[in-house]
Amino acid sequence: MRIGIVGCGKIVGQYLESFRRLEDVRLVAVADLDMERARAVASEWNDGGAGQAAADDGASVRALSVEELLAADDVDLVLNLTIPAAHAEVALAAIAAGKAVYGEKPLAATTAEARRVLDAAREAGVVVGCAPDTVLGTGIQTARKAIDDGLIGAPVAATATMVTPGHERWHPNPDFYYQPGGGPLLDMGPYYVSALVTLLGPVVSVVGAASHTRPERVIGSGPRAGESFPVAIDTHVTGVLVHESGALSTLVMSFDAVATHSSNIEVHGPQGTLAVPDPNHFDGETRLFRLGGTEWETLPVSAGYAGSGRGFGIADLASTPAGEEPRAGGALAFHVLDVMESLLDAAHSGKAVAVASRAERPSAVPLTGHEG
Question: What band does 181 get if pLDDT is binned at 50, 70 and 90?
Fold first, then answer.
C-alpha cells in the first residue's frame, strides 16, 4: 500500500520510524500547508534510508502540495496527520479523490463530521482507518487474551486514569489541545476508550461530570514560552461507561492534576484483577492478582504485534481482506468518538446519555513478530 502523508508536524517522526520497518506499506509523498516542513520530512526520509521496499525500486519520497498529493496516481492511502479541527476536511478530500484514509485520532472533531466521513467512504468504496493503533501492540492484546482466557472471570468493572498538568508545559504550540476537538478527553481519551472497548466490548450509555478550571494557559517551552492562550474546553472529565456486557468502566481524564499512583487501566473480575499497561504505548507489562493470591504476577507476552509503533494499524489495514472492517477501523473510531461526545453531553446535562452507535469488538491479534 502506497502512502501519502498530509501534515508534517510533531507526530510524523514516529510514523516514519515504523514505515522503515514495515514491508506492506511504502511512503511515496508528504504534504503540508508549510512546504518547508514537507520538504524537510521528505529530505529526512530520503537521506536517512527509505526502507527495503523503497530501496528496491530506487523510489524516493516527494514533497508535494496537499492538492498535488491528493491527485497523485501513486498514492493509495492518505495518512491524515493534521490537527483535529481539520481531520474531516482532509479525509473528505482524500475520499473524493478515491483514496483510502487513515487518520490520527479522533476521527473528526464531532460525530456529525465523522458520520460524513464514513458515509462518503462507503459511497466511494474506500476504507477508513484511524488511530490509536496502540491497542494492537503486545500490551493491550496480552491483557485482552488474559480476559478471553478467563483468568479474572467475567469482567465486572474497570478503571482508567490519565492525569497530567497539561501539554502546554512541553509542546511549543499547544493551542489546539485547548480548542474544540482537543482537551484531555478527546486528546487522550481515544487511547483509553479504544482500549476499554477492545478489552470489554462496546459502550451503551454514560454518565459524567466535567470542569473548566482556568480560562488561560501559559506556554512553557519553545519560541513562544511565556505566551498566554485561551482555553475553550473542559480540562477535567470523569464518568462511568456502561458496556454492553454489563461491565462498568470509571474514566478520569485530566489536564489539571499533577500525578497519580493509579494504574493506567485496571480490570476487575470475580477471580482476579488485571493491571493493564499504558494504552498510549504499544507494549508494557500486564500484571495479574489472582483471588487468594498474595502478590502481583507479570504475565508473559502472549498476543499482539511485538515491537510495533505508530503506523502498524495501517499495515494491519493493508492486510485486512476486502469487505472486512480493519481492527483500527472507522467504525471503532466513530464509536469511541461517540462515547466521548456522549460523556461530555452527560457531564453538561447532569443526566445519563445513551450511546447511539455500536462497534464490534475488534478481533484479537495473535502474537506476531515475537522474538525470544
Answer: confident
The SS3 call for residue 242 is strand
- Asked whether the beta carbons of 341 and 111 are under 8 A apart, the reply is yes
Counting Cα atoms < 13 Å in the Cβ hemisphere of 100 gives: 22
CA distance 269 to 272: 5
The answer to whether the beta carbons of residues 7 and 16 sit under 8 Å apart is no
- Over 50: is that where the pLDDT of 362 sits? yes
**Cα(28)–Cα(99) distance, integer angstroms:** 14
**Alpha carbon 230 to chain centroid, angstroms:** 25
Predicted model pTM: 0.94
Q: List, for residues 196-250, the tens digit of each pLDDT value.
A: 999 999 999 999 999 999 999 999 999 999 999 999 999 999 999 999 999 999 9
The three cell numbers of residue 246 are 454489563
Find out whether 168 and 216 touch, Cβ atoms under 8 Å: no
Confidence class of residue 55 from pLDDT cuts 50, 70 and 90? very low
Tell me, what's the pLDDT at 49?
53
What interhelical angle do 87-96 and 111-124 show, nearest 10?
10
Burial class, 209, CB count within 10 angstroms (exposed 0-12 / middle 13-18 / buried 19+): middle
> Which domains does the chain carry?
2-130 (3.40.50.720), 134-303+328-354 (3.30.360.10)
Quick count: other Cβ atoms within 10 Å of Cβ 220? Answer: 18
Q: Is 136 helix (H, G, I), strand (E, B) or coil?
A: helix
